[in-house]
Amino acid sequence: MSVLGYLQKRASDAVLSGTEKDSVNKSIATLQARLNLYFTSTVSQHFRFGSSTRDTILPRFMDEKSDIDYMVVFSEVGYNPQTYLAGC
């Protein structure tokens, strides 16, 4: 195998498969639905950010600590995340 062939294969392997993308999207959709259901009036916004939105996320077999970054912004001032967890 040539150096170019090797590098092209490594680059191709570093892209999430369709199955992995579908799994991530399903999990995000579930998270969004549950946030909208349980925190209707207390969450001002929530969104995905980071490598998954830039399509630079690595598959788990290449980086076992690969994750999805997701931000939840609560509209109420003075509370911390544990406050919401304790109330559920």
Task: Give structural notes.
The protein is α+β, with helices and mostly antiparallel strands and 88 residues long. 44% of the residues lie in helices and 15% in strands. It has three helices and two strands. The protein has a two-stranded antiparallel sheet with strand order 1-2. It starts with a helix and ends with a helix.
Quantity of strands, as a count: 2
Task: Look at the helices and sheets and give the structural class.
Answer: alpha+beta
How much is the radius of gyration in Å? 18 Å
- Let me know the largest β-sheet: 2 strands, antiparallel
End-to-end distance, in Å? 56 Å
Helix/strand order: HHEEH
Quick structural overview:
The chain is of the alpha+beta class and about 90 residues long.
SSE order and pairing:
Blueprint: H1 3-13, H2 18-38, E1 43-49, E2 69-74, H3 81-87
Antiparallel strand pairs: 1-2
Short key terms for the protein model shown above:
elongated; 88 residues; 44% helix; 2 strands
